Amino acid sequence: MPIQSLRLLLVEDNDLDALSITRVFQRSTVLQAHIERASSLRGALEKLDRSEFDVVLLDLGLPDSDGLQSIRAIRERTTSVPIVVQTGDDRIETGFAAIEAGAQDFLSKNDLKDHLLTRLTIHAILRQRQMLELQEASLRDSMTGIANRRCCDIEFKRRSEFLAHEGIPFCVGIVDIDHFKSVNDTGGHDLGDRVIRQVAQVLRDTCRPDDLVARFGGEEFAMIFSDTTIDELGALQQQHRCAVEGLPPISEKLKVTVSVGATCVLASDDSRSAFRRADSALYAAKKAGRNQCRIEPAIRSMGNGQIA
């Protein structure tokens, strides 16, 4: 989609340079720029906290920041807004260093021409959008549109950090479609794929805003229940199981159901150990007759008063 207007944060402490850049965009017949100015890194960070911008035009020579430090500080605050660096340093190495630090593009102040500045700004926004779209696609399962295993691993790591540093508990689960071979045998792989997509949609719709459902592969899904204790886990499992059970039957003899296994995550867990316990609980649910939920405790009693 063509860019016709944008919100630009100009981070420039020199009044004459700021006026010159503002006039460049005012003269543009290609786009309309709504410009806010900050004359320091601190001011820029405050504006980024309060408002949304399409691009940051950043001078590296700020009074409260030294060179590339400004880029890194803005990148820590936001990863989605492209940064175009303007610098009085003509060395190409400086520009490449700026890009390595997180800038999308760079321009020497000695090359400040109307068409060049506006073109760089537009291209930086478009490249950033494409990069974000690719990142998003890399975290999605192509068939169902929900998160994939890589996204689940990233979210598990993030939740583990919350658990370690802030004590916020979370749980994980595995959901498996019951008798899925019968689904494929009944209607072929096209029907199987349709059922997988239906179950994925139901699980996603049943999730709370901060929870995650991801496709693990085949007919199996992983779940991360954020800010959840083991006492709350059973009710959440049942909500997902019942939601899938409410899907229309495939035939008179075949109804879509799922089995769910889950566990609470310990600070000592990694993704593999936590989901291994959830898988053990899933096996118990399958063995008990399917269309059931089971919880594998993170700490088991050994039967003699000791804890294993």
What does this molecule look like?
The chain has helices spanning 15-27, 41-50, 69-77, 92-101, 114-138, 149-166, 180-206, 230-245, 271-287; strands at residues 5-11, 32-38, 55-59, 61-62, 65-66, 83-87, 105-108, 171-177, 212-217, 220-225, 258-264, 293-295. The chain folds into two domains: 5-134, Response regulator (Rossmann fold), CATH 3.40.50.2300; 149-295, 2-Layer Sandwich (Alpha-Beta Plaits). The protein has nine helices and twelve strands. By secondary structure, the protein is an alpha/beta fold. A hairpin with a 2-residue loop joins β9 (212-217) and β10. The strands form three sheets. It has a five-stranded parallel sheet with strand order 2-1-3-6-7, sandwiched between helices. Strands 9-10-8-11-12 form a five-stranded mixed sheet, sandwiched between helices. A two-stranded antiparallel ribbon has the order 4-5. The radius of gyration is 26 Å and the shape is elongated. Residues 301-308 have low confidence and may be disordered.
